[in-house]
Amino acid sequence: MPSARSIPLSLAAPVVFFWASGYPTGALGVAAASPFLLTTVRLTLAAGVLAVIALVGRATWPSGAAAGHSAVAGLLTHAMQFGGCYGGMAAGVPASVTALVISMNPVLTAALAALLLRERLSRWRVLGLVLGVLAVLVTLGGQVASEGEWNPAILLTLLGLLGFSAGGLYQQRYCGGIDIRSGGAVQTVAAALVIGVIAAFEHGHVTHWAQAGITVLWLVITGSVLGVSCYLRAVAVGGAARASALFSAVPPFTAVIAWPLLGETPSAAVVVGIALATTACVLGTRTETRTPAPV
Q: Which positions, given as ranges, span the membrane (predicted)?
């Protein structure tokens, strides 16, 4: 098996930028339209784009149990993640805090993999997990101190993180042999249907059509198509550990983008949380080197 190479800056930079820009853009979107309505439209358009790509590329479509596994992966990865993140931001969770929580995905994934898949957790990954939890607690504590009260909407953001991590593990366990183009289309269709049902009871509406339209197009093109494609390419070039470690750079870039775009000035707690999260992700995704046993 060929060894993984380092991810070049020309590939790492687009991955970080596309993911980081999604949070402030999503905040603009939920300011112009109801969160579940916005998520439904985004997922529906993304499903159409992915379906066209799969048809043009003559990808093999999953059927039977494979289609069911793809649907479950989509409900976790897309419905829970985006529904939780956008619902939280619509209820007042800042984009920078959302990005920080979601950046814990590699660390939480490592913990769930150890619990559910019996994968080994080294001392460095355990330390990364502890620092990751501390990063979230420091950030949320700072938010409570600045706002004077606990915002229960952060639970939606945490639900989004859980869906993101669980979806990745489910994908690894049950969807390994499914074409990512057709499988991705099935995933987003399933997620769009479920979020669409929730949106029907939301009594959602659009307050600013131009802003909502621009943000949805940006989220579909950069998030669902370009961002995912660049990330999968990064996995192919550098391996999953190195690629997921790129998430450690997402929160600071999100804070930088959100400052002029949303007027969200990073607090001291957010800055400390970003530093802890970066360290946690590096430790939680580091490649272990093992000394070969003597023959």
A: 39-59, 97-117, 124-144, 150-170, 182-201, 213-232, 244-262, 268-285
The answer to whether residue 211 is domain-embedded is yes
Residues sharing a CB contact under 8 Å with residue 6, sequence separation 6 or more, in sequence order:
238, 242
Question: Does some domain include residue 157?
Answer: yes
CA separation for the pair 103, 16 (Å, rounded): 11
127 to 44, 111, 160, 161, 282: CA distances (angstroms): 40, 11, 23, 19, 11
**Distances in whole angstroms, Cα of residue 152 to Cα of each of 73, 91, 93, 158:** 26, 9, 9, 10
3-state secondary structure of 292: coil
The reply to whether 3 falls in a domain is no
Domain limits for position 78: 9-284
Per-residue pLDDT tens listing for the chain (295 residues): 444 566 788 888 888 899 889 889 999 999 999 999 999 999 999 999 999 999 999 999 999 999 999 999 999 989 999 999 999 999 988 888 888 888 777 778 777 877 877 777 677 767 877 777 787 777 777 766 776 667 788 899 999 999 988 888 888 788 878 888 898 899 999 999 999 999 999 887 899 999 999 999 999 988 877 887 787 777 767 766 667 777 777 877 888 888 888 887 777 877 887 788 777 767 765 655 554 444 4
